[in-house]
Structure to design on (648 residues):
């Protein structure tokens, strides 16, 4: 399919923004006391979030997981509000309650990032149910990893979404590792997408390091869902270049494997295509990199200068109090 | 005044709220077409009345049912979903405990989850421990959830209507033994606020704090003790979360004596919380140590004499009251 130039540029921008954002986080999380909690990065997997979100309308919902930065930035989340949240500051998008792992950005219809593996799937079914109930032409995308496909929630969600023909797109970001388990060690099915046949719904395997392919597959699944024809399962084959989290020494991942996949990095891949098509010059790409770095530095400054939440704010937002 | 069983009162509440708000829908196992065809049951007839778009029979998928509610509520609907029996709450619990209860907090107050999870509970029908297991203390232990356990048809109706209109996730636990006993329910529309206990009987000698089916046990015991000149005050919590501490404390400050009665097992039961609140905040007014009357720390057995032994009754309650008088 012909991908419009503005979509290609949108995907490249969001991938480059995510990379700059996470490269900075990678440095910051090494500094003692700077970032609370864990740090889980998607370096090398950016094409999934960027390709998926480029295919969506602003009104569509996404439900994300612990490796969420690329999904949220591609959906349009404000890097400053995300960075402040990751720092645990009051100005963060969730007032410091979420941190990096549970980021929630309802403003861009990304209301839930769950760290419970597979937890997003039943919720995405609920959001899609609401869309169908109100006869909207909107869809919900649920992004999850290959490990989530081993959870009961995956099967319950796909079964119900199929039974009720709900407008949901299940996107498995298969990065070949679930924690320290390589794909073959946690399931015998050759590809997660094969499981689509069991529900039944269309299943597609795409190169998860090619943003354009992810975009095309998502667009097709979105049309299918919005047209009332029910869910699709898309498996994006990619690779976890970094550890599960930043403290993971990756001793169980072969070095040659990591090196091989770094060669397949989705960002230079799209840049090369845009260069050879004459859409962008090297100079323009360089300027984009600079702009992304500046945006991230501004986000870090904002986070650094923001106040901590006051202790009494710990009690805010447990309940809706005017109810 | 109309006389309804609690199941019918729940049914009226569901019907009225569905008529009032098109965003209210129902989902659960066998809530439309049921293996039980009985007009006393809560969702009987609602499928015919509202159709399959709003009364959704689901597969046997408790996690999907609860997740449906979480997702649909954050997207603006007001789901009322049913978990068939309290022990199956374990299957739905990730969606309720880790998601419904926490996602508003995690959003920094930006998202709301106006959902109700109705759960059927209670021992007494010989179904055994995987169908009978009162887990209200588990749920009450999760900040972000409200927990309601009505004791009368009228309370069930008024509380459920409030629960459906509440913007928080509410776990609404119905004891099935109450479905069939008729009680008065006002004809006109009414709401009962969550978080308000109800003094079901006044008395100055001892306070019995209880909820759900055990309110009936407490009232029977109170009537019997009345003949001996012992005046029992029965405080029906109605909602465990938010807990109406004021009503409990005011009663205990008057009587100086406390017995907490629940069907759930003893260790880690909600009676411990009520006793702790009273001990912390009104210790000096206690004239005697508190007592708990609860199910014993065993799974609910099937054999009729054993199941009867499991469920607290008037005799056990009266004995506990006499101990501290």
């Amino acid at each position: 399919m012909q991908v419009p130039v503005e979509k290609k540029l949108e995907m490249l921008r969001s991938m480059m923004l995510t990379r700059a954002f996470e490269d900075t986080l990678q440095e910051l999380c090494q500094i003692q006391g700077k970032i609370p909690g864990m740090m889980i990065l998607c370096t090398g997997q950016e094409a999934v979030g960027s390709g998926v979100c480029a295919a969506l309308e602003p009104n569509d919902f996404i439900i994300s997981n612990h490796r969420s930065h690329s999904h949220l930035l591609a959906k349009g989340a404000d890097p400053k509000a995300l960075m402040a949240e990751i720092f645990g500051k009051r100005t963060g998008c969730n007032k410091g309650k979420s941190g990096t792992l549970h980021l929630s950005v309802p403003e861009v219809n990304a209301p839930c990032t769950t760290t419970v593996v597979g937890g997003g799937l039943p919720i995405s079914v609920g959001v899609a149910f609401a869309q169908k109930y109100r006869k909207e032409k909107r869809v919900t995308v649920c992004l999850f990893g290959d490990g989530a496909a081993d959870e009961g929630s995956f099967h319950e969600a796909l079964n119900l979404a199929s039974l009720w023909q709900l407008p949901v797109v299940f996107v498995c970001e298969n990065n070949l590792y679930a924690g320290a388990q390589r794909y073959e060690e946690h399931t015998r099915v050759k590809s997660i997408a094969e499981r689509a046949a069991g529900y039944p719904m269309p299943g597609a395997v795409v190169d998860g390091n090619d943003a354009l392919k992810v975009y095309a597959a998502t667009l097709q699944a979105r049309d299918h869902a919005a047209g009332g024809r029910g869910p699709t399962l898309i498996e994006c084959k990619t690779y976890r270049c970094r550890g599960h989290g930043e403290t993971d020494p990756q001793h169980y991942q072969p070095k040659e494997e990591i090196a091989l996949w770094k060669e397949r990095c989705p960002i230079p891949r799209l840049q090369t295509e845009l260069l050879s098509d004459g859409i962008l010059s090297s100079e323009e790409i360089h300027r984009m990199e600079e702009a992304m770095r500046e945006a991230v530095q501004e986000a870090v400054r904002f986070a650094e200068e923001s106040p901590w939440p006051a202790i009494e704010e710990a009690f805010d937002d447990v309940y809706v109090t005017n109810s | 005044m109309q006389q309804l069983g609690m199941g019918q009162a729940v049914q009226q509440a569901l019907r009225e709220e569905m008529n009032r708000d098109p965003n209210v829908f129902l989902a659960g196992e066998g809530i439309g077409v049921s293996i039980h065809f009985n007009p006393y049951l809560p969702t009987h007839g609602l499928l015919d009345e509202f159709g399959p778009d709003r009364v959704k029979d689901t597969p046997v998928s408790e996690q999907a049912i609860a997740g449906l509610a979480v997702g649909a509520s954050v997207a603006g609907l007001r789901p009322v979903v049913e978990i068939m029996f309290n022990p199956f709450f374990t299957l739905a619990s990730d969606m309720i405990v880790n998601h419904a209860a926490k996602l508003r907090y995690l959003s920094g107050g930006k998202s709301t989850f106006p959902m109700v999870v109705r759960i059927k509970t209670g021992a007494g029908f010989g179904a055994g421990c995987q169908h009978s297991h009162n887990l209200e203390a588990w749920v009450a232990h999760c900040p972000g959830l409200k927990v309601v356990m009505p004791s009368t048809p009228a309370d069930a109706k008024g509380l459920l209507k409030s629960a459906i209109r509440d913007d928080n996730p509410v776990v609404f636990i119905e004891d099935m033994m109450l479905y069939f006993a008729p009680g008065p329910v006002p004809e006109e529309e009414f709401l009962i606020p969550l978080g308000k206990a109800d003094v079901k009987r006044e008395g100055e000698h001892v306070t019995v704090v209880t909820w759900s089916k055990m309110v009936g046990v407490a009232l029977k015991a109170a009537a019997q003790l009345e003949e001996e000149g012992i005046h029992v005050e029965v405080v029906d919590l109605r909602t465990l979360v938010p807990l109406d501490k004021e009503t409990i404390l005011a009663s205990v400050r008057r009587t100086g004596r406390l017995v907490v009665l629940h069907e759930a097992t003893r260790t880690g039961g909600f009676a411990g919380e009520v006793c702790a609140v009273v001990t912390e905040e009104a210790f000096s007014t206690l004239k005697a140590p508190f007592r708990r009357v609860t199910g014993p720390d065993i799974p609910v057995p099937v054999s009729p004499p054993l199941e009867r032994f499991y469920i607290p009754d008037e005799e056990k309650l009266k004995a506990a009251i006499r101990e501290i008088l």
